[in-house]
Amino acid sequence: MTTHLTILHWIALFIIAILFILVLILTLRNNDGKFPLSAILTNIFAMTILTFFMFYGLDKFTKLAKLENVVQKKVLINESFSISGQIRNVGNFTIGQCTLEVKISSDSLERNSDGPLFLPKSVLDDLFKKEAPANAIETTKEFVIAEDLQAGEMRNFSVFMRYPPSFVKPYTRYELFCH
After folding, report:
1. Residue 154 within any structural domain of the chain
2. Separation CA 18–CA 24 (nearest Å)
3. Distance CA 21, CA 15 (A)
4. Using CA atoms, how far apart are residues 106 and 64, in angstroms rounded to an integer?
5. Lowest mean pLDDT, pick from 5-9, 75-79, 144-148, 151-155
6. Do the beta carbons of residue 142 and residue 98 sit within 8 Å?
7. Residue 93, domain extent
């Protein structure tokens, strides 16, 4: 897995490092004869969490890609389907890796044999209900569809996935994750 740090990542890392050093200096200077290990460990923990969220947020807003011309085809002979199309980097920075998460479900949007699709229920029903419905089967698979995608670059992709033979009318959803 490759990840590309942008100039914004480096600036954030530099600011967090300066903040860490400042808090460390203040901790050592004002320890009042106590052992400052807990304050130092808290500082390390807090800066690690801050770094994680900062990088996550920066990746969310700098690593932008979108799917175009997506076509889904069913292959009935071997009970599989393919999703093909193009992925485009619409951001200004290089994307390390894009993953397409495909979820296939046996639930259809039609009326099933148990009754209507929508049944009103109370919020308390979910608290006391332990089992999932037997007809709600879902399979999820992830595919890496692009690596080292430069700014403005477009690439073709194609993924294949089998679905269980018990699925009468499979419903497919997919989501793109880039970092």
Report:
1. yes
2. 10
3. 10
4. 31
5. 75-79
6. no
7. 65-178
